[in-house]
Structure prediction request, 803 residues.
Amino acid sequence: MSVRSILAAFALVSCLPAIAQTTNDWQRVAPLAQAVNSEVVLSKGIDITLPLVAENGAAVPLRVNFDTSQLAESEFIRSIRVFSSGNPNAEVIDFHFEAPFSRIELSTRIRLSESQKVFVLAESNQGRQWLSQRDVRVTVSGCLMTGDDSVDAAVMSSPRIALPRNARSGEAAEVRTLINHPMETGFRETAAGEVIPQQLVESLTIKQNDQPILLVKFHTGTSANPFVSAFLDEVDNLLFRWEDQLGEHIEEKP
Amino acid sequence: MSNKNTNFSTSRRRLLKGLGMVGLLPAIPTIAANTSGHAGHVIVVGGGFGGATAAKYIKRGNPKIDVTLIEPNSTFYTCPFSNLVLAGERSLDSIGHSYEELKSVFGVNVIHAFAEDIDGVAHKVTLSNGSVLSYDRLLLSPGIDMRWNAIEGYDEAASEKAPHAWKAGNQTLLLRKQLEDMEDGGTFVMSVPADPFRCPPGPYERASLVAHYLKQHKPRSKVLILDSKDNFSKQGLFTSAWKDIYGDMIEWVGVSGDGRVVRVDADKREVETEFGTLHSASALNIIPPQKAGFIADRAGVTNESGWVPVNPNTFESQQVADIYVVGDATLAAPMPKSGFAANTQGKVAAAAIVASLAGITAPDPYWANTCYSLVNPDYGISVAGVYKVEDNQIITVPGSGGLSAADASLEIRQAEAAYAVGWYEAITQDTWGTQY
Amino acid sequence: MISGYLPCTRSTLIKLLSSATLLLAINAQASDLPERQVSLMSSSCANCHGTDGKLAGAIPAIAGRPASVLEAQLLAFKQDLQPNTTVMNRIAKGYTDEELKSLANYFANVKRK
Prediction:
């Protein structure tokens, strides 16, 4: 999907009055406010890497690190969820950990319809929650205009998996994966003014020895051709399974 | 010369004042009339589009300001039109520009040395020839440096074997040699970084002009673009023109098609992408990720992104007072990292420096940009924009700018190719020269 | 957000101001923009038309041409009334009518050679 088309997609709703944003405005982001259920939300421990200025709102690289050294014994991270303050739908991407991960470092690419805040909410198996946020300014650089407004078929294809070339046992290693799919938001119109229906890849499940270890939920805020990288403690016997909104699925082994 | 100008201006000013048209005078060094003797010393580091323009326009704004330009090379080779050199359509000499007119006509003091260090507190610049210069205002136009080893195996030594050619000159010739030595039926492989980088449409113009050369001399060859992003500048225009002109000679692979190069073996001319695909090249062009030129780091004006945040009204550093930074090194989006943008930023910073030394407020900034790309020497496309400041940020003036029409006639494409040449002559004259 | 609601506020305001100016000073062609402001605005034009608009080549010189001709031409570009335009229509849309008038006056007053 092109820069222009994603911006055009969001333009449908961007003329709604913006809710005034302040520094502690996470409560105004409804799905985030709902997700925060602990009395005390901790702020230290999440490191968000995002460009200060994103020249292409259709695919903004995001990395989230969580400092696991502050977890108690037998405490581990259950979920990392990403929200946005300015997208038409605040939900961006969710990671659910089905097993303890020694290293929490996740990368993906997200959509930002305009300059806004990105929130990351982490939750442990003991119910503790952490919240962090970053401002991103979104511009469309003059020379970046693409003039491409094509509509791609909403089917999953070409799943790809990259395992580390020199993984050392006992050390978490980066696994990258990508599947081709346009991730239609349902906010976009054709040149003729017809709304293109929503078509998303809903989820990616990574299994190890037939047991799910990581479940990733994609939303409208996830970029086309969803990309995920995570650090896994073991990289043997993995299986990747993607499911889309039509009920189709693809399975792939590295 | 400057005296003559002033006299001429003054008399013309008087004449026009009589006619009630005093507000219309072009390019009058008005501030010069209000100052006497030493009006301040400005050091400009970097003699490219941003720095050379700023040096000239500071002198035009107030000839009494002493301007010293620090630039290691006596000839500056422009990145714009270097793709024509690569394709054998122009000589390297034709894109080289000297500093003679800045010296002789505008009275800019040019020192050919490297600026090695900057002390923003003491207002001092240390040069590679050992001298230390003091300034009242400093303007940096540092351009870009490559992020060596951001791609595994791609360091400065590797760039001799797999040239980036993203600074024009010897690198351009190295890549030209690989293209000339390439066998018919070979593959020219180019790796393109993610945004932001110098000249967003540049890689795609390069692919076009390389294909133009191959089509004539080695028609069974291919151009493979391995890209770290899924969208690129003027994509629709390039893609349809490629198909029309070059058939399937040019193949583009975006990041979602496994186009991101993560490892380079310059000796074997081989690259590996993110998901493990190996590509062998007959000629290998690696355009690596970039950052602001190193002197910006030494001056303490870069932030964690590796680029330079500036006050949009004046292009003064947000981090160090009295240092102005223009061109590719700055965070100026939505303005692109282009020679055109650097030139207009140089003029805004020059006006701000002249005003600041005279103790008056800077005029409101205006910038424009037009990026021409040649799909072949007779087929031009462009993207344009007009920019201003709103809420302390640079914005594209709503309704302005945009791309060449997708359905334009061949005559229009030819006209844009001719205008691209006209643009090159004009901007290099405006930046380094005086001859009309 | 505000500019999204009212994209024309600034230009409309300047149009109102400029017509008021015309009424007050019918003979004066001067714009209300200060000289060094127009000078800086005009400097972007040099990138294609040469310093002070004096370079004549593939791209026409604009220095020293009558202000009324230049202004009419710029307005025609802005309103897409000029056929076979390449880039000037996209650029002219970045300026208010008042700013285009100032630019036309500026270049009209540059002497060629």
Notes: The CA atoms of residues 57 and 112 of chain A lie 5 Å apart.
